[in-house]
Design brief:
Chain lengths: 638, 224
């Protein structure tokens, strides 16, 4: 099969596979659209579990005639228009594919009127290219979407549908979630022509309690702890079911992030942990929680159905939710405990560290922590923190007298605000730690490197080759010189030693493995004589025992040599005071040079370059002074 | 050990002492401290560390305070080979598996333990008999900004695993400079932790270890 662009209908049907799983997913997408359009009244009609008909009518802003066609095409949306918008999503939808997907697997009609328009228009997309046809219609301001015969053209998907009753239960669940999150919106649900539920918009607390009661059952409303904590970029509010109404199923667990219903592992984990020891492993907490975070802190663009989010600072959010829930439960239960002192479910949680829980090896650490916590400075910080916390929480606590500000665990001594600040820094990528060594690697000498091309034709000096291991043949103009390699090496070594001696900035290098030299009286005496010179040359030699000298730092020249031998040989050369420095340096150079193996051609190249960098003298001059002129004659060619 | 030395009064004094033992063999040092050398380290794992502690005047012993309490300095011996490469990862502290709520890097034990460390490398290739092993050049170290950032990044990632109940998913491969590994006398020991659903579970105790690349960089930076 050749590679080809898919026709729009097929592309939409593929997308529908992800987004439109069953009638309930259609309801979810359409309800979210209505809410995003600012609707305050929504009517839902369902027939035959939604497979025959889903009709949603709202009083939102509506869609203007010219955009009706676009509304049904894929990747068309009014909710985001740039990447910046995507990074801070404030609407429920944003992908711009719901309507197109739904209309590709059903017969969808979209009727809408804006306040500015005198008449409504109805749009329908048909055929392989999903061409949109428009016709005038009668409709109040707002939008009605009718989805009939869902999956009529995708029999495979249709076969996955369950009984009408089951599908209706799923639909009801989706509606419940919306009902809980938006108490300001009136929602009417009709099933097979009969009014099934009418959730009225709730203006006050009582009405709201009624709404919650209608969704979560009356026992939930009677046994809840109200939660309302606002903290910098995160706030959390809602109702926590008391442990005694914990349920055998997860059916009363509603959690919203920025108004969007979530089934997020991280959030569930934090809440479950907060309920720990209050409910058994088989029970599930009941709760309705609204978490609000800066939209920039979450990524909802994780999954098309948007059941999951990613928090940029997941552990921080997790811990915040845990602490908020834990503290609320704790406070509530402490209050209850006065009335019911023998409540077996109540376990005070004060010091989180219990030595009995620890295995033997861990004790050291926790004691360390405990002492740390008990230290006076730490206490002051904790106190400050508590003050800080309760003051910023006043909004919540004044609204609901019953709810006392939560007291954080001691461990969270550092304010959350401060933590947040730190986090931004924490999340920065590392600038490679190990880069520094590369900088240091370039030694003092290398930095002054001047590029010398020893084989360049333009150069007056040409290093020709290495003869008999120790002799370098060098051509200067048309004169040929033989320079003993050792002479060059020694000149370089001497220059390096002089450099070290005359530059305080020259670094001496510590030896990771210092070298010990067995000493006798004679050697010690020599060492004593040479100490000044040694320190000038950046040697650091210690005498930790009567019979041992330890070389700890050496000038860079001496690295990678047999130091024990080099240094002891050299010390033996300086028995008498005063020391002839020049002779001593020359001797050191001799000794070091003896440690070098016969040079290779590339060694020679390096040396020549080093010489150019180190010496005031030009290399040509050096060769002329120290090399031997080689007399040669060309045999005439016959 | 009958040998006794007061705790040093300053970092300078501590460094001087540490430099004085650098380059000497454990045999020579044991002689100075008047202790006998164990035939092998299998049964006395901490012997080398204890010997160095004793010679430098650290008296915290197993107490949960820095080895040089007054100076706030931890002592860490670091086995290396002749090329100066660390032979082992370096144990830092126990990884907290419970009560991690609200724990920040600033308050973490890892941060405290690594705040200021006196690294004492020990040439400890297996082929070298214990008494001939050589004490290396001491390095008094605090993490640089970049090093701390690397530590923080790993710590945050690893702590996220722990707090979100994914402790069993942690392997030694997580983390660029720190790793978490089991730290227990044998594999049957269990401690409390949090499970994937937020429920309490039992897990093998874990410890934080510095990876070799990190300690290698400390050595390299100090001796170049």
């Amino acid at each position: 099969m050749p590679i080809q662009i898919l026709p729009p209908q097929l592309a939409n049907q593929i997308a529908a596979g992800e987004v439109v799983e069953r009638p309930a997913s259609v309801i979810k997408e359409l309800l979210e659209n209505s809410l995003d359009a600012g609707a305050t009244r929504i009517e839902i009609d369902i027939e035959a579990g939604g497979s025959q008909l889903i009709r949603i009518r709202d009083n939102g802003t509506g869609i203007i005639k010219d955009e009706l066609g676009l509304a049904l095409s894929r990747h068309a949306t009014s909710k985001v228009c740039s990447l910046q918008d995507l990074e801070a999503i404030t609407s429920l939808g944003f992908r711009g594919e719901a309507l197109a997907s739904i209309s590709s697997v059903s017969r969808l009609t979209l009727t809408s009127r804006t306040a500015e328009q005198a008449e409504a228009w109805q749009a329908e997309a048909e055929g392989r290219d999903m061409a949109v046809s428009l016709k005038p219609a009668a409709h109040p301001v707002g939008t009605t979407i009718e989805v009939a015969d869902l999956f009529f053209n995708t029999p495979a998907r249709r076969r996955f549908l369950r009984t009408d009753k089951t599908e209706f239960t799923h639909i009801e669940e989706v509606i419940k979630r919306i009902v809980l999150s938006r108490s300001d919106v009136s929602i009417k649900l009709t099933n097979n022509g009969k009014l099934y539920k009418h959730y009225r918009a709730a203006q006050d607390d009582r009405a709201q309690a009624q709404r919650i009661s209608a969704v979560c059952g009356p026992s939930f409303v009677e046994n809840t702890i109200k939660l309302d904590i606002d903290y910098d970029i995160v706030s959390i509010s809602g109702w926590l079911g008391e442990p005694k109404i914990a349920r055998p199923q997860r059916d009363v667990q509603y959690c919203y992030v920025n108004g969007r219903m979530m089934r997020d592992k991280l959030i569930n984990h934090a809440i479950r942990q907060a309920y720990e020891s209050r409910i058994t492993n088989e029970q599930h907490a009941a709760y309705v929680l609204f978490i609000t975070v800066d939209p920039k802190q979450v990524d909802v663009n994780v999954h098309p159905s948007k059941h999951e989010v990613r928090f940029h600072q997941s552990r921080l959010i997790h811990d915040f939710i845990y602490q908020a829930v834990h503290a609320a439960l704790n406070n509530e239960l402490v209050d209850n405990a006065v009335a019911d002192a023998y409540d077996p479910q109540f376990k005070p949680i004060e010091s989180p560290v219990k030595s009995s829980e620890l295995y033997a090896g861990q004790i050291t650490e926790t004691q360390f922590e405990r002492e740390r916590q008990a230290s006076p400075t730490e206490k002051i910080r904790t106190d400050q923190h508590d003050i800080e916390f309760s003051s910023s929480n006043q909004v919540g606590s004044s609204r609901d007298k019953h709810y006392a500000p939560p007291v954080y665990d001691k461990k969270s001594a550092q304010g959350v605000a401060e933590q947040l600040g730190n986090y931004t820094e924490l999340m920065q990528p590392v600038t490679d730690v190990f880069d520094t060594k590369n900088d240091k690697n370039t030694s003092t000498f290398d930095k002054q490197k001047v590029s010398v091309n020893t084989f360049s034709d333009d150069s007056a000096v040409r290093v020709l080759s290495l003869v008999g291991e120790q002799h370098i043949l060098i051509l200067i103009a048309d004169r040929l010189y033989n320079l003993p390699a050792r002479v060059l090496l020694k000149a370089i070594l001497l220059a390096k030693l002089h450099y070290v001696k005359n530059n305080e900035s020259a670094v001496s290098q510590p030896l990771l493995l210092p070298v010990a030299i067995k000493t006798d009286e004679d050697l010690l005496c020599c060492w004593n004589n040479a100490r000044d010179l040694l320190s000038q040359l950046q040697f650091e030699i210690q005498k930790p025992r009567h019979d041992t000298l330890v070389i700890q730092k050496v000038p860079a020249v001496l690295r990678n040599l047999n130091l024990a031998k080099v240094v002891s040989d050299w010390l033996m050369f300086m028995p008498a005071t005063p020391i002839n420095e020049l002779a001593a340096l020359n001797e050191l150079v001799n000794i070091i040079a003896n440690e070098y193996a016969a040079p290779t051609q590339s060694d020679i190249n390096t040396w020549v370059q080093e010489f150019e960098n180190l010496s005031d003298q030009s290399f040509a001059e050096f060769v002329q002074t120290n090399g031997h002129l080689v007399h040669y004659q060309f045999e005439p060619t016959t | 050990m009958s040998y006794y030395r007061e705790e040093p009064n300053s970092e300078e004094e501590l460094l001087t002492r540490a430099r004085q033992i650098a380059g000497l063999t454990l045999g020579q040092l044991a002689e100075e401290a008047q202790v006998s050398i164990p035939p092998n380290l299998q049964k006395e794992k901490g012997w080398v560390g204890q010997l160095i502690e004793c010679l430098l005047g650290a008296h915290a012993g197993s107490k949960p305070v820095p080895d040089f309490e007054n100076l706030g300095i931890e002592l860490k011996t670091l086995p290396i080979n002749r090329q100066g490469t660390p032979l082992e990862t370096t144990y830092v502290c126990v990884a907290p598996l419970t009560n991690t709520i609200g724990l920040t890097w600033q308050d973490s034990v890892v941060k405290k333990k690594l705040n200021r460390v006196l690294w004492v490398p020990i040439l400890a290739e297996r082929s070298i008999p214990l008494n001939e092993r050589i004490v290396g050049y001491p390095i008094l170290w605090s993490p640089s900004r970049a090093e701390e950032q690397a530590l923080i990044n790993d710590w945050e990632e690893l702590m996220e695993f722990i707090s979100l109940g994914r402790v069993e998913e942690i392997t030694a491969k997580h983390g660029e400079v720190i790793q978490i590994r089991p730290k227990a006398a044998h594999a049957k020991i269990r401690t409390s932790a949090t499970g994937a659903e937020g429920q309490p579970i039992k897990a093998l105790p874990r410890g934080f270890y510095l990876k070799k690349n990190f300690t290698q960089a400390i050595l390299t930076n100090a001796t170049l």
